[in-house]
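Checklist before submission:
- one chain only
- standard amino acids only
- sequence pasted in full

Submission:
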Amino acid sequence: MSTPAPWLLLVAAAHLGFQLTVDLVVYPALAEVGPERWERAHAAHSRRITPVVAVVYVPLVLVLGWAAVAEPRDFATWVAIAGGLLAVVATAAVAAPLHGRLSSGGADERSVLLDRLRRVDRVRTVGAAVCALGAVLLVA
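Returned file contents:
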């Protein structure tokens, strides 16, 4: 395993599984939490998800960097990088700040912020799927 391709496939698949779980399970469940339990539920979610995000995103970024250096001429590398960067940038630029606003915001804006969060999460999921597709093409 001296090339990044199998490692990229592994981390891209883990990332896609994580994103699908958040998109289809975690955020819908969080949206169903009532106002009386919201602050506690969102704080618990944030505390629990942060280490998982680190475990998924750090290897993803590292292996994408490795692939860019080791396989720069392969189109599949750039497909994977484009998808991975879409997910990472959407997380850092939009999802994380939205979570911050959800922590401190009032109940009035919560549904609007949750809708935005779910929309950006769909973008992250698409990015993860594109990254995984690039990884599959790179291995093939």
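Reviewer check: The chain has four helices and no strands.
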